[in-house]
UniProtKB/TrEMBL annotation:
Name of the protein in question: Cytochrome C556
Matches recorded under InterPro entries: Cyt_c/b562, Cyt_c_II, Cyt_c_prime, Cyt_c_prime_subgr
The UniProt record lists the keyword Zinc: no
Keywords: Electron transport, Heme, Iron, Metal-binding, Signal, Transport
Processing and modification events after translation: Binds 1 heme group per subunit.
GO MF entry, a single one: heme binding
Amino acid sequence: MKNRYLIAGVVALCLGAGAVVAEDAPQILRQDDMKGIGRAMGQLGAIAKGENAYDPVVVEGALSTISANAKDFPTHFPPGSETGLDTEASPKIWENMDDFTAHSEKLASAADALLADLPADQAAVGAAVKSLGSNCGTCHQLYRVKN
């Protein structure tokens, strides 16, 4: 009976350690960055469409998230992380790392410019979404593989 508890404890410990390792995997970290950008774009999109009222705090928070995550994103593509954990990263990233990083920096710069001159109403948020979205779309066409 004690052996069962000991075995169950060891199995639980190993499963927990595996989850911690997976959370720190570069594939997971970059997916988290993209999910954050997606949520932020969703917040901006809801304002642009009139689904949510204009709120400068929400706009600033969303743009700050996009800026921070776009700056962090290229750091999560070390050699050896090309596959696994449901990554949608194209092998082209590692072949063209400078260009890939430039795309990410362009998105961060666009978000920073919008933060410096915060969109002041629904129409301005709509224009910001179009601008940011075109940056996202260009990079996704080049460097994302849908699973």
